[in-house]
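USER: My hope is that you can spare some time for a protein that puzzles me. I am handing you a single protein, as its sequence and its fold in token form. Walk me, if you will, through where the backbone shape changes along the chain. The protein I mean follows directly.
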Amino acid sequence: MIDFWATAGVISAAAAILILLRAARAARSAARGDAAADTTGVFYRRQLAEIGDLADRGLIEAGERKSAEAEAGRRLLAAADAPAEAWTADPSRPLVLAAAFAAPALALALYLTVGAPGALDQPFEGRLKTWMAANPEQLGPQEMAAVLNRMTSQRPNDPEGYRFLALAEGASNNPSGAVRAVKRAVRIAPGRADLWEMLGEALIYQGGGAISDDARDAFAQALKLDQTNLAARFNLARGKVAGGDKAGGVGDLQAMLAALPADDQHRPALQAAIAEAQGAPASARGLNADQLTAVRGMVAGLAERLSKAPDDPAGWVKLVRAYAVLGDTAKREAALRQASTRYANKPDILEQLSKAAAAEPMTRGPAK
């Protein structure tokens, strides 16, 4: 690494010296007045010759020829009478040369001070072997995605491997990678409704929440394979609303809601989607007591799962946001402290946790 910095510094300084030497040579040449040719005069003389050639070929009239030749001659005389401007060297040239030497020298000194010149290279293959030998619960999403990429290349016909890879890519904020992985899983096992559902959700994630035609097709295929697939029905109904069929989408959502038991955990999401589709303001999309109880049950289930499998950054972010939305400040702070301690060395996760903790509490008015 030191050799690299030294070589880069020498090359930078040499390039600066060459540029400054050429500039100095040009300045001396201009000062002596030995210009290679009067380029301006040559241009106008060539223009006169071209005007004559065009006239000889009958392409311009005699009157136009005289006017054009007169104008070109006037410009030629003006250029000949204009005093030549000498090219003088920039007085700041020594400073530029000093900076060219100082910049790489300073960079090298800084690297030697705060860097690790004696550290060995860490090629990706070596790190990958370490990750593959480690406990999966100790790996971050990107590390897990790298491991699963290698495993799926070794087992290319295993749809489960690609399903887990899609989950890891999604947790790594790589929606395109998630879509590629789940598409591969669907090609291997086209008869699995859960994979088609996952593909639709991955496409929505990739599209920033928009339900594209490809996502609709994926959900339609999932519903064809499994008529009870609630997520596919829900997203197809939302797709109708987004596509302009508001009445049809709301009707499908209401039919789904009517078929669910009173204590089903999915009812709040359906009621909120119906209210949103009908244009209700955000303040009118609160939850009644029963719905609030159902939501708290879902949040309690998430908290219990994290207590058993705590290495789930996305889960912690959801839990902190849920407590914030519910207005449960004490539990929000407790979950935030626990998650912040666990991921103290991962600033991206800490930032997500901070944003989740700042979520606005929801309105608790009755939902119609």
